[in-house]
Amino acid sequence: MLYPIKFYPILKEKIWGGDKLRTILKKPSITNNVGESWEISTVDEDISIVSNGAYKGEKLNDLIIKYKSDLLGTRVYKEFGNQFPLLIKFIDAKEDLSVQLHPGDELARKRHNSFGKTEMWHVVQADPNAKLIIGFDKDTNKEEYETFLKKGKITQLLNFETVYKGDSYFIEAGRIHAINKGCLIAEIQQTSDITYRVYDWDRKDKNGNYRELHTDLALDALDYKKNNNFKLNCKKIANDVDEIISTKYFTTNTITVNKSLKRDYRGLDSFKIFMCVQGSGRIVVDDKVTAITFGETLLIPAMIKHLIIEKDELTMKLLEVYI
């Protein structure tokens, strides 16, 4: 019988990573340069392994093969088969990430036999004056972009956003972007690890080498238009569900719980994901309780149609994700 599933985090050391995943989100890291915690993944060799219950130690892709639509939902399984359609992460930027973009589905399929990468960010914590780069500051074109890039002045074309805890942003495929230092982010994205890095702040890795850039690949993947539709509206309604984004790739809601909240999923043919971005509490299914704490992620199988969300002492906030 399926139940709310937790997974061991897959931790990724990065040149720009820090220690917030360990100190704030309590991830089991012993180093100070961990940039990413992959919470739910079936990307290549990075397969999530169950950390709770009867299936502890089993791989997510094996559970999908075994349970199919009971785990993913009939429609989702028909479209994606045995691959989990989303990659769920927490990201800690001690230093600026590279300026980058991701191809859309058509280009990614043609070049890499992969899905494209549309994503969203939710700011879990932000240092004072922390920023994100999202899109261009004005409409530009390939020729102007290449000129600024070759002169090392690409940042003069980019849009910088000062961010605060609780902000959410939508990053469409093709949109140039970067997470800057001081941001702790929850990221929800298509299952894809295709990134075109175009500028890396002229820094070198620990071996004294510059990281690979993907300048030519990016040219046909970029959206050169200024666009202001990236900031998402979060109403922060107490003890209710607030939809912040709904696309063909994923829907994300915020759930702020200060009492208890019943969720009825009888009209939804999809798995559900809970990312706890504040407080702690419990998910109750048929009188069986699964604890969830700040920084944890839960996968709720599609076959579970009713549950109750309960908080501990303080208000709990979840990101709820499904297709």
Fraction of residues in H or I helices: 10-25%
Strand order of the biggest β-sheet: 1-2-5-12-7-10
Q: How large is the count of helical segments?
A: 7
Strand-residue proportion: 35-45%
Q: How would you explain this protein's 3D organization?
A:
The chain folds into two domains: 10-219, Sandwich (Jelly Rolls); 240-322, Jelly Rolls. A hairpin with a 2-residue loop joins strand 18 (280-285) and strand 19. By secondary structure, the protein is mostly beta strands. The protein has helices at 20-23, 60-67, 69-72, 74-80, 105-112, 142-150, 215-219, and strands at residues 10-18, 34-40, 42-43, 46-47, 86-93, 99-101, 119-126, 131-136, 158-162, 168-171, 177-179, 183-190, 196-199, 240-246, 251-257, 260-264, 272-278, 280-285, 288-293, 297-300, 306-311, 316-322. Helices cover 14% and strands 38% of the residues. The two termini are 22 Å apart. The radius of gyration is 20 Å and the shape is globular.
Summarize the structure.
The chain is mostly beta strands. 14% of the residues lie in helices and 38% in strands. It has helices spanning 20-23, 60-67, 69-72, 74-80, 105-112, 142-150, 215-219; strands spanning 10-18, 34-40, 42-43, 46-47, 86-93, 99-101, 119-126, 131-136, 158-162, 168-171, 177-179, 183-190, 196-199, 240-246, 251-257, 260-264, 272-278, 280-285, 288-293, 297-300, 306-311, 316-322.
